[in-house]
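Example noted here:
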Amino acid sequence: MTDDASVSNFVQWVLSEAGKIDILVNNAGVSLVGPVENTSTSEAHTVFDANVFGPLRMIRAALPSMRAARSGLIINISSVLGFLPAPFMGIYASSKHALEGLSESLDHEIREFNVRVVLVEPTFTNTKLDVNAAQTAAPLGAYAAQAEATIKAVQAQIKTAPSAVTVAEKVLAAINGPYKMRQPAGGQATLLSRLRRFMPAKAVDSSLRKTFGFGKRPAS
């Protein structure tokens, strides 16, 4: 996903074997945990290259076939952090915000060709991506105590989080069911989506800070 030529060659091979592409699922991605201030440009670029530019490469390569056939579905795996950002996950959250904006714009552009875009938005999922998320290389410094409290809160949620099967089921539902652009997946994803839409901003802010352990510092 991070190499233009590799993506183009792969899509051309699929077309030579299958003749057309009906569905594209952009699922690959990387995560990053750490303060925004401590994040290097290189670290941020790595996240955006996988989470935003990767799907863009795949879309550019696959879309001409879909347009020609006047049929197709592009499913981008986003995250609840794409509409509800979390502390110490700013770069990952911003990459998912970018993916959501790209998806909405693209859906308007290609709808007349009978091609649609779906956003699947999982909450925390018990996968290696969440369990083994990379951390920024720079020392946490002044953010250490709060970052550790937040990471502990997130790890507690991951232990009881749904498996990737829940997300796969949502992808199948998006393929086989009635069209709906946003598809919250697993755990409290649907609830979080509704809270973001209907709760006052101050209440959402307070709830997030409580959820991610602000004010709860680890014992020294």
Summary: The chain has one domain: 4-211. The longest helix spans residues 41-69. The domain at 4-211 is CATH 3.40.50.720 (Rossmann fold).
